[in-house]
């Protein structure tokens, strides 16, 4: 960013606005997802969480994933478990076992959930401890929101599919991305009122429950967030098809470098 400030963009330089880069595919015109979505049927063996989502109602579940570089404290895991259970909303939780702090010990830290938790929520949610097909999950019609660390790829995948975001930024560019999502695009809700002040504190279950219910159920704030996210998703997906703005930019770029 500092370099960009010092080197103003020259007017005679051609620029192209290209993206998103995640895969998307046109599907049936009768689709409820405005003609465009991820193709769920290109694999013979679909992930178990997708099969579980097939049985849920449209927009009834949230997807939870904090990426591959973030580990939540045990206390935070417990609060998240309680908040999810209290919300009553169905969910898919990608809960990867994180490396132990001492990377030279050769040991792994297995994330432990509260005793009896997985049994209690077996009809409400599914916990995925291995790799999860994030883009396919976000493109599934049963997903109504994404609780995310707001890594840029995750943001783009969620917005491409028209899925609103519960922003839970951890580090790096994630706090800035969360502001873009919640304050400018207004397609999400932030778990923090003030990230700088609260980032090292354990987010309590009542806050987690509140943001989930707000973004998922019928209320003025949630309805507006979901509407804007859906509209943005349609615009993003249409941009990549023939005649769309992203497609035109990409074609122009290819023509420029191959001339």
UniProtKB/TrEMBL annotation:
Pfam families: UDPGT. GO terms for molecular function: UDP-glycosyltransferase activity. Keywords: Glycosyltransferase, Transferase. It comes from the Eukaryota. GO terms for biological process: glycoside biosynthetic process. PROSITE patterns: UDPGT. Belongs to the UDP-glycosyltransferase family. This is Glucosyltransferase.
